[in-house]
Hints:
The strands form three sheets. A seven-stranded mixed beta sheet has the order 4-10-9-8-7-5-6, with helices on both faces. By secondary structure, the protein is an alpha/beta fold. 31% of the residues lie in helices and 13% in strands.
Amino acid sequence: MAPADAPSGGASVSPRAEWLSFHDAPRILHPPPGPRSRELLAAQERLETDAIGYPHYFPMAPATAQGATIEDVDGNRYIDWVAGISVLNLGHRHPRIVAAMERQSHAIWHALELPTEARIEFLKELEGALPGALRGHARVLFTVTGGDAVETAVSLADFAQGKRGTVAFSGAYHGVHGGVVHLTSGRRYHATTSFPSGTIVRVPYPDPYRPVLGADSGAAGTIAYLEHLVNDPSSGIDAISSIVVEPVLGEGGYVVPPSDFLPSLREFCDRHGILLIADEVQTGLGRTGRMWAVEHAGVTPDILCIAKSIGGGIPLSLVAYRRDLVRELPRGFHLGTFRANPLALAAGTEVLRILREGDLLERTRRRGAALVDRFRGIANRHPSLGQVRGLGFMVGTEFVHNPTTRIPWGERAKAMRAALFARGVLMHTAGAWDQVLRFMSPLTIEDELLERGLAAYEDALEALEAGPEAPRTVPAHRPVSPGDLHPPGEHGIPHPVVPPVPGRTFPEDGES
């Protein structure tokens, strides 16, 4: 496997000195959760709210991490195909980000809104990295989380337009706190908030695999429906200020829309004086093989929401908006004590520099396309894999009961997550029925770890298809530990138990 074209099926060994990750992952010494992990999980259960989810999906206690790998307190090592839900596009503890934070830690950690050198360096680096016409023509409003950025973007659009009304799409995930939860489409999240919703219009996202408005033949159906909402005096919609869109659905199942969707949406917004907000919280910063996913379509949004990987693992988010959008925002339009923390800004500056230098984005496009081909090869051998789709390192593998009816099979996807965890690979679910396993590893992952992860993926799938009594096989190239990749039935993987609350149902997944 040539490094530029990985994964290809014939892996070459890269020099270990160049690795950022633990070279022997996956390594299972104790069937997870191991004894020390069990102690810490029990302490967490006693001391912390039962509202948390991830300890149920990945029951182990991390001790340290490098690159695209994690070691738990029991010495087990895992290949990380979760990356903190795309927070760690450059992996765990990237040496350049560690060095940048170390330098900043000797200067200042907290400075409110005052112009530290770290703040100005970050703003200048970001200015040159923004997409299309925003580059050199944007202003920045710092926020705290991804959801905070989206909520602020909508408020900014309404302020600029002097009216309210936001189009959001089915399958959307824009956060779950305060008012922004109503922009997120999942019913399971709406029941958790006491804040009233704004004026939100929900439109089906153009999903070629599960079309509602003709998405299988392009975005025409979606745009026609939007035109109906605007032009028909009986559509029931009084006003639309903005449209907020994920260029690729994240929690909605890693759905890649038709190629004409974003350009058509941009044209629609321009025709009707509507502002286009791109939520690039999960898709941005190289995840799809370009700095921003909108660049695949050559589209510039009016407002861009940025979070997750921008801080290299330290909380940082922001909104970049057209300089001419508003003449002046009132002082205190958006507040937050921890906005633009200098440590996060130092990390963010280095994140941008790493992504803009070298060929990492190009390699992510190439390796991501090859990875989609490899997953499709597995799908051809296993009918329960209904579709494989993706851009760059944002790849969704959807499980169905039947490839013809396409009935979602969430139970199989969750069983795969548990089976992969037992084999030392972390992979998480998405989609309305949790039927999609999504690949979102760090962009810096070594080729050999991709190969080992793919082998574990098909091995887990074959074991599930064969049933619990089937003989187990271990891929020949994988390191065999004393624990030997115990099959998922040999130890309990706990699942969240939610007490019944009248009128509420809480399926298992969700990210903030």
